[in-house]
TrEMBL record:
Organism listed in the record: Halobacterium hubeiense
Sorted UniProt keywords: Membrane, Transmembrane, Transmembrane helix
Record keyword Transmembrane helix present: yes
Transmembrane spans: 27-44, 56-78, 98-121, 128-146, 174-195
Name of the molecule in the record: DUF2269 family protein
UniProt lineage: Archaea, Methanobacteriati, Methanobacteriota, Stenosarchaea group, Halobacteria
Amino acid sequence: MSLTDAQRPANRRERYSSMVDAASRPFAAGAVVVPLILPVLGYVSGDARVMFTVHLFLGAFWFGTAVLGAVVLGPVMGSLSEEANAEFAAGFVPRMNLLMEPVSVGVVGSGIGLASMMGLWASPTPSLWAALALAAALLALGFGPLHTFTSGMFDEIAADDTDHERLASLNKKYGMLSLVELALMVAILGTMAGLRWGF
Ligand code: HEM
């Protein structure tokens, strides 16, 4: 859709309403509901194998998206012209903004729930504590600075007088922090391997 007539959102409510419009209503609903409902279904199933599958699915999705974003899409976006970058970001940013925070909560929630269904909290191993600490850092990064940068990017894209300099600078900061996110994700996968082998 074209956002050329839109104004820069004045507040959070306005921003989310235009973000939902830009991403499309069905996408926005699915992006929030699916990653949050799956861990709940896994937990109420009472079967650790179901929860394990949910956790793997959401975890693989988050990890894959993080690699793709940091290694491929970020550098490609950075090398586009101002107009092409704004156009690409207009489709990409609202969808990612709506999708990735629920996915991150779904992965961490399903991991904590899985550990409880497997009885691991009775005597947590160092890997389990490390996973919890890394998850807290990942969530703080995602809901904190990464959220602030992508919201700012969306505001610039939605405005009819896009400040391309601010957009590029936010894009750059986002790109650098997404490498930190990727490093934390690689570390948490190390702890997942540790859990598997009982460390
Ligand atoms: C970015 C976040 C995460 C990703 C990508 C992820 C990914 C994975 C993967 C690929 C496995 C399968 C390998 C294995 O069996 O060990 C797994 C298993 C598991 N994860 Fe996670 N995970 C994440 C976060 C968490 C968190 C925060 C917790 C709990 C605090 C957790 C708890 C578990 C448990 C208990 C298992 C099963 C271990 C076992 O098979 O013995 N995960 N996770």
